[in-house]
Amino acid sequence: MTQHHLCLSGSGGQGLILGGALLAHAAVRDGKNVTMTSSYGPEARGGASRSNLIISDNPIDYPIPEKMDIVLAMNQESCNKFVPELKDDGILIVDSTLVIHHPPIKHYSIPFTKLATKAGVVIIANVIALGSIIALTDIVRPVSLKEALKERMRADLLPINEKALKIGLREGTKLKKNIDEYYTY
Questions:
Q1: What confidence tens digit (pLDDT) does each residue in 133-158 have?
Q2: For position 44, which CATH number holds?
Q3: Of 117, 10, 136, 14, residue with least CA distance to 73
Q4: Chain mean position to CA 29
């Protein structure tokens, strides 16, 4: 049975709940079963935010993930808080723009925020992260995430998000070549 438990974490305004919904949408397009829970602080921007997903080839008995196969930490606070939820053989992916103190475990660092800023819009960092995750793990097909973007994004935001997906896929592919090594980007 193939089942993946994921935590997408950061602060409000980074688009992690949308990111979870996009990943869930892509997984459904791939014929997988999905559960998603999310939480966020009372602040409109800057408070804690997270999406937890289970993506499975088989029916899901319990909708809340326990130990995570993948933790995405888009800021230092979420890295510190959610790393203990990672399985021993799990994958930690951090935004090296905002996560300065890496835990002493195997992890992958990509400057999502810096790459998004360089592409022209900081709010696409979430989609760059999603592209990296799927390139590293093959949880969903890239075409499924591209279709999810088309179905869930406003038409005027679609081109920059498709660009973000390409950037994320490129960065994740670079990391995948080093999957068995400690790697800091």
A1: 999 999 999 999 999 999 999 999 99
A2: 3.40.920.10
A3: 10
A4: 18
